[in-house]
């Protein structure tokens, strides 16, 4: 899961994921959506592959890229599990702020 979170840390890689969520594409098709070099885009693709977020399949002379939802699903499940703790902490903070504001209005 560390590789997944690391891969998601870059805006270009998140954009690649968004595009592949819409439809499978080749590297050449994706290149039209970026203002980075083809070599830089290839490097981002490799990082996403290593994190198993995308799959590459040879179709004729092209390599078709597709999204592997399983890797992202595991990360989302982890975040969902811990979000209940975060929400509880934010709820407690909200109560403390309201109490402090009430105390200020009374004084």
Q: What topology emerges from the helices and strands here?
A:
Layout: H1 2-8, H2 11-22, E1 25-26, H3 27-31, H4 38-50, E2 54-59, E3 62-67, H5 69-106
Antiparallel strand pairs: 1-3, 2-3
Mean pLDDT over the residues: 88
Low-confidence stretches: none
Strand order of the largest sheet: 1-3-2
The CATH architecture of the domain at 2-68 can be given as Orthogonal Bundle
Walk me through this protein's architecture.
With 107 residues, the chain is α+β, with helices and mostly antiparallel strands. The protein has a domain of 67 residues: Winged helix-like DNA-binding domain superfamily/Winged helix DNA-binding domain (Arc Repressor Mutant, subunit A). It contains 5 helices and 3 strands, in the order ααβααββα. It has a 3-stranded antiparallel β-sheet with strand order 1-3-2. Strand 2 and strand 3 form a beta hairpin. The N and C termini lie far apart (51 Å).
Short précis:
By secondary structure, the chain is α+β, with helices and mostly antiparallel strands. Helices cover 70% and strands 13% of the residues. The chain has helices spanning 2-8, 11-22, 27-31, 38-50, 69-106; strands at 25-26, 54-59, 62-67.
